[in-house]
């Protein structure tokens, strides 16, 4: 007698709350940025399919210490963080990444009450939330499609809320923007809420520049992909070989600045427009701000948080800050 074929497993339920306004298109942002006197493209548009794959490769490079250092810190300190959060905590992640670091925390939290990723990319958000729901049966998963810097309310949860902002993503913001973001989340998490933030530390400039300009040229390909994307999606004709990649430490601003620099005067088309470049003209793509331990603690205090704990590796390359509202 033939056995019936097994029924496919039911798709885990994910609560999806769409709070995002219409996304600014890549075309709108690219054309606006290239029309400015100081040309710039928002770094969030680096992460198309090709860009995301390149960034995943960057995270494995020997020069790029942040990912592996933060992951080791999380594994070593997850028990302490979970104890501070207490039972039934709701983990709220700012930006839904690959979820590797998220799982480290979920595995140690005491009967977590909810996981709530916040991201503007609907497709990426749904996929990330579904993976967590499938791997953690019984966990309430609420995906919030929203800009985590915009005003919105979190759904009601029973336990303490703990915001999770890993990967030194806060470094992509200016110090004023970082303070404003932390202040908004202090209110959103509520009294006694926690926030765990990954913060890259100031260190030898040569090490910092190497982390963003690796010997294999993967980061250069990642940054130049913004022009390749314009060629593919906006009918562009940028010659990538005529732009040099530059990553420099700016000690006054406390950040690594990433630019594409025109090699020779040239013109390029995209989106039906023509853009002219002088020799040496720059396109700003991304900043990565770095902090001292006390410097970031002071920023968090100014935003209304107290420093509950801070963790760093032996080489003081990277830090995790556990903040309390």
TrEMBL record:
Does Methyltransferase count among this protein's keywords?
A: yes
Looking at the keywords, is Methyltransferase present?
A: yes
Renumbered to this chain, the signal peptide range is: none
The biological process GO terms on file are: methylation
Keyword annotations of the record: Methyltransferase, Transferase
Which InterPro entries does the UniProt record give? EgtD, EgtD_Methyltrsf_superfamily, MeTrfase_dom, MeTrfase_EgtD-like, SAM-dependent_MTases_sf
Occurrences of domain Histidine-specific methyltransferase SAM-dependent (ranges): 27-324
* Name this polypeptide is given: Dimethylhistidine N-methyltransferase
Which organism is this protein's natural source?
Amphiplicatus metriothermophilus
Q: What is the lineage of its organism?
A: Bacteria, Pseudomonadati, Pseudomonadota, Alphaproteobacteria, Parvularculales
